[in-house]
Every structure is written in structure tokens, then in C-alpha cells.
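Sync notes, pocket subgroup
Present: LS, DG
LS reminded everyone that the earlier model was apo-only. Rerun requested with flavin mononucleotide included. Inputs:
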Amino acid sequence: MPTAFPDAPALERVLDLAAHAPSARNAQPWRWLVDDRGVMLFADWTRRLGDSDHDRRDVVLSCGAVLHHCAVALAAQGWSSRIHRFPDHDVLATVELEPAPPGGGSLELVEAISRRRADRRPFRGDLDAGTIELLMLRAERFGVRLTVVPSARWARDGDTVALRYGDGSPGHPGDDAAMLVLATDTDTEAMRLRAGEALSAVTLSAAALGLVTCPLTEALREARDRLMLSCELFDGQAVPQALIRLGPQSVGDPLPPVSRRSVAETTTFDL
Ligand SMILES: Cc1cc2nc3c(=O)[nH]c(=O)nc-3n(C[C@H](O)[C@H](O)[C@H](O)COP(=O)(O)O)c2cc1C
């Protein structure tokens, strides 16, 4: 056992906060095992929303997002995380903990956890110069590329957002959002996990700046669209993993929180 370790109530608070992570259709497809060596993250494949590779990708991306939320919540409580990704076939990650004073960055991000929402409404206004560069750097820390999808390449119809390669759909009038894409050099599950961590880092950083976001993977369901996007933006050398719609503000009032599973439902404590 490490010389210092958070007690069970502190870890419960951390995992309760981490559960606010975004997940595809709010499936929350993760399980935790906490023992005296650290925290282990598993995918809960029973909560997969379909049988395709796309649904598998959504599970791993969502697990990456909760992993990053967990590391942020730990950092704000004075614990730095050493993350080992896919240490074992079944284990997505193990998190070893060491005491470390909370830095300003982690406090900013932890504060954003309960404010961030997946906001599907149109966004208004222009982003400040430098915002997207900052978010690119946040994604890069995970070895994940972030770039902007040209405005002419996406469309919205009601709440549905789609990529627009080769069809005449009408674009996104009334929605000033920037569309970002997160992409990885390879399409392994380890890289999908990292893309989920980057998705969390980007959406929390945006919320900390007072911006609004919505992660999207439905629009990447078609292999043809992913390929066209990859060819146009990355010369075919990177795999689009997720889109994030980003804007300064949404139309209407702040959204209410969406419910989450309890820590008791997702976690086994073996302390
Ligand atoms: C990997 C991933 C994929 C998602 N895909 C979509 C999507 O295609 N369309 C959408 O409206 N929301 C999408 N979301 C947002 C989730 O639906 C949202 O996070 C969830 O319903 C919980 O709501 P909250 O983020 O506001 O707490 C996605 C989120 C993640 C993490």
C-alpha cells in the first residue's frame, strides 16, 4: 500500500464528481474498483448501446472522459494521478495516487465539472482569438489532435447535426458554433481512451472559460464521412474520434443537470 492514500469517503466524493463526465446517450458505461493500491477503471460493456464498432468506440471514449474527470477531481483534493492505460487486457486504466498540492488549473477545471452540459441548442457569438489554440494544446497533452471542421462541412436540422460531404443539406443557419474534431494517429482502444480524456479536457476547459459545448459522435457513424473528414483535414493520416460543437453562449437559460448513476452502482471498494 502507498504510504499516503485517500480514505473511502474522500474517494466516494471524487468518483461522485467524476460521474458528471459526459457519455454517449448518458450510458455511463464504466465500473470502478478501488483497492489499497489505487483506482481501476473498467468498461461496462453491458451498457453498450448497440453492437457496432461505433458503439464500442463510444464506450471507450466515455470511459476516457470519466477517467479525466476522476484525475481532475483527485487533483483538486490534493492527489496527483499516475495513469497506466490498458495495463491488462480487461482493465482500461489504473490510477496510482500521490499527495500533491492542488494547482490553480485543477481547481478551475473541477469547478467547471458541475457547470458543463452537452448543449444541443444553437450557439451565438464569436469566439475570442486564441481560444481554439488553447484547446488544441489541452488535447495535445493526450497525444490527440484537435482542429476546426470547415463551416461548410456540417449542417443541422433541429437537434440533429451531420457532416456534409456531397449532399445539399442547408448548412447551419442560426447556429454560429465552431465545430471541432478530435483525431488520433491510430485507431487502437488506447488511443480512443486518450481521445475521451481529451474530450473531457476540452469541454471542461471551455466551461471554465464560460463557453458552451456539445460532444458528438453520431455524426461520425458513417465510415465514408469519417474518411472524407480525415482526408480533408489530416491528409488521411489521422482518425476522427469525436466532434465538439463550441460557442461563446447558447440560446436560452442554463440547462438543468442530467441524472447520473450513484457511486454505489458503479464502484466496488476493496479497502
Ligand atoms: C463519446 C460521446 C459521444 C456523444 N455523442 C453525442 C451525439 O452524437 N449527440 C448528442 O447530442 N450528444 C452526444 N453526447 C453528449 C451526451 O449525450 C451527454 O454527455 C449525456 O447525455 C449527458 O449529458 P451532459 O453531458 O449534459 O451531462 C456524447 C457524449 C460523449 C462523451
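DG: The domain at 123-250 is CATH 3.40.109.10 (NADH Oxidase).
LS: The chain has two domains: 8-114, 123-250.
Action: DG to write up.
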